[in-house]
Amino acid sequence: MNNSKILITFITICAILIVYSCRRDPILTEEPDVPYTLDIGEFPQPDIASDNPLTREGVRLGRMLFYEKLLSKNNTQACASCHMQQFAFNDTAQFSIGVQGLKGKRQAMSVFNMAWNSNEFFWDGRAHLLRHQSLKPIQDVLEMDETLANVVSKLQSSSTYPDQFRKAFGTTQVDTILISKALEQFMNSIVSNSSKYDDYLAGKVTLTAEEERGRFLFFTEYNPAFPSASGADCQHCHGGANFENDKYMNNGLDDDAGVTDIGREKVTNLVADKAKFKVPSLRNVGITAPYMHDGRFKTLEQVIDHYNLVKNSATLDGSFQQQLPNGGLQLSASDKLALVAFLKTLTDNKLTTDTRFSSPF
Q1: Do residues 91 and 84 make contact, with C-beta atoms less than 8 angstroms apart?
Q2: What pTM, to 2 d.p., does this model score?
Q3: Domains of the chain
Q4: How does the average pLDDT of the chain come out, rounded?
Q5: Could you please report the per-residue DSSP string of 280-294?
């Protein structure tokens, strides 16, 4: 080979090396915007935020962050520490214990079917979007007690996360907005719609006589004029596919003198919202004890006893007000057991073991 050909070959090789060395990122095997498909079953189509659609890589990153202990001050707790999959992403403690050994102020809420939540987050609705909610426990001194700046620094310095952020959002630069969006995507991906009751609606199973009696009581309105045909009217607050109504209500836990947590009022500054709290989904209620915003009830039986005759107060919801003059619902012992039996048909055992929602570590 003469010198001119050697020179041309050398220049060609150098050009190829320069082109490849200038690539900012290696070729992705999966594009960051590949959609993640929700298995919604018979649920209505959820209204996902247009600026944060679910993608495979976004949900994957959010799942990692949900189980990531680096989000806490001493790297010992993750979101999943207080939202455990085996209990429908709820905590069995009345008040969750944070990294400093301190108790939270309210019972942890379950994290599933968030994609159908349309009226803000937390018991009092102080977080407008799910992404906003996702960052508050990290900074709460009673919970994970960490700064967002430290979280960003820890994730940026890791050998794993910069590349995961690149796959999910097209950048290796970690920031709080992308952290919150990833967590939002994962939590929106957690769907619970595979209970015995769902199978009943699909015609796959039948309910027992006791469960059927409970179903009648649950969905039938309270009617004191016809006691034998009167129901417990549970669906008034816990209706629809997700067994909730996207409202904040006073459900008669305390009278005016007994209220110690003003709930929604602290957010809206409206006296009319005193002692009102978010109406939670009753799906998986059989495995999410303790109950109410303060976890005061340990069993479903105690919950039913409460609703049989609630306490009156200035902001008590009107549906309960009409029951008071007649001594409440006046449920029999067998009716109470039937309601509990029906509520247990809402348990989604698939949710508690689904690997799509389990720890990736």
Answers
A1: yes
A2: 0.90
A3: 56-191 (1.10.760.10), 196-346 (1.10.760.10)
A4: 92
A5: ---TTGGGS-SBSTT
Yes or no: say if 108 and 92 are a contact pair by the CB < 8 Å rule: no
One-letter amino acid of 131: R
Cα(14)–Cα(67) distance, integer angstroms: 46
- Rounded to the nearest 10 degrees, how much is the dihedral formed by the CA atoms of 202, 208, 211, 213? 110
CB 179 within 8 A of CB 152: yes
Alpha helix locations (H) across the chain? 3-21, 56-66, 79-82, 130-139, 148-157, 161-169, 176-189, 196-201, 209-219, 265-268, 300-308, 318-321, 333-343
Phi, psi of 263 (to 5 degrees): 60, -125
Contact 188, 77 (CB under 8 A): no
With b meaning 16 or more CB within 10 Å and e meaning fewer, what string describes 171-194? Answer: eeebeeebbbbbbbbbbbbbbbbb
What letter represents residue 288's amino acid? T
Gap between the Cα atoms of 198 and 356, Å rounded: 20
Give tens-digit pLDDT for 101-125.
999 999 999 999 999 999 999 999 9
